[in-house]
Amino acid sequence: MSQREDWGAFGVTVAYGRKLALDEVTLEVPAGQVAAVVGGDGAGKTTLLRCLTGAVRPRSGRIVAPSRKEIGFMPAATGVWRDLTVAQNMEFVASAHRIRGKEFRQRRDLLLEAAGLAHLLNRQAGHLSGGMLHKLAFSCAMLHRPRMLVLDEPSTGVDPVSRIDLWRLISQTAVEGTAVALATTYLDEAERCATVLVLDDGRALQSGTPDQVINGVPGTITVVRRPPDPALAWRRGRIFHAWHPGPVRPGEEQVSPDMEDAVVAAALHARVAGSGNGSAPESGHDEEAHQ
Ligand SMILES: Nc1ncnc2c1ncn2[C@@H]1O[C@H](COP(=O)(O)OP(=O)(O)OP(=O)(O)O)[C@@H](O)[C@H]1O
What we know:
InterPro entries: AAA+_ATPase, ABC_transporter-like_ATP-bd, P-loop_NTPase
Region (Disordered): 272-291
Number of strands: 12
Domain ABC transporter: 2-226
Protein name: ABC transporter domain-containing protein
Bound molecules: adenosine-5'-triphosphate
Strand content: 25-35%
Keywords: ATP-binding, Nucleotide-binding
Oligomer: single chain
């Protein structure tokens, strides 16, 4: 077992056949912090998390992580058994970790109390709301007091109130010293993490603290009512934001970007740079793409 506590994936490359899913990607996951991985569909988020858990072996690069039994993992599909009750789900996971008797009951009660599920011990998991299901999955992943917790889109599809509850649990876990790595598509969530890694098609576009990622936006983001080039614009409420690779031009209303702007601009920059001609990317982001 490694004694280091600055876990992470360092310069990791993963290929599935000819598909390069990760291209020399680094994600540091220090104890006591939440490290977020963001990116669109197929960006490589799950692959990177599964490298940390040992389920995917990189072609090259280095994984520094605790032993598998010291890692808690919550898959995107929650991993909860819907035909079992809340209590049975916890028992099943506990038995895999050889946690029994009073120790188990105390841990179970503590976690379910914190998750607001203590009164639902005998409810079949399939009859829980989406938010409750995710909180049960979180509790199962935490049962054995992991040193590193890996959460794959823990709040996707969860209602806003349950999202707040889940985030309280996640933050508390980090405060207590656990290293937390999570994938999320909610950029407001990423903004409250200690560090953010922006992935796009297997490549790291940006990484650092949320401020570093936001301030690292290449080019210029402006407010527009009608996008001059829909492929380089995204909707923000009633208006659009647009990006171009150069410095601000006369007459443009420059935006002070947030995480959403930063992530979209980084992806557009990568595509424009990849196309080599400075024009709009072929795949295009239509005006509804980033609502
Ligand atoms: N077992 C696999 N075999 C072949 N290709 C795979 C496999 N798993 C993932 N991929 C491909 O690798 C790339 C990265 O997938 P990954 O699931 O890591 O992305 P992601 O960011 O988690 O996206 P999503 O949220 O859509 O799952 C995608 O192009 C995906 O199609």
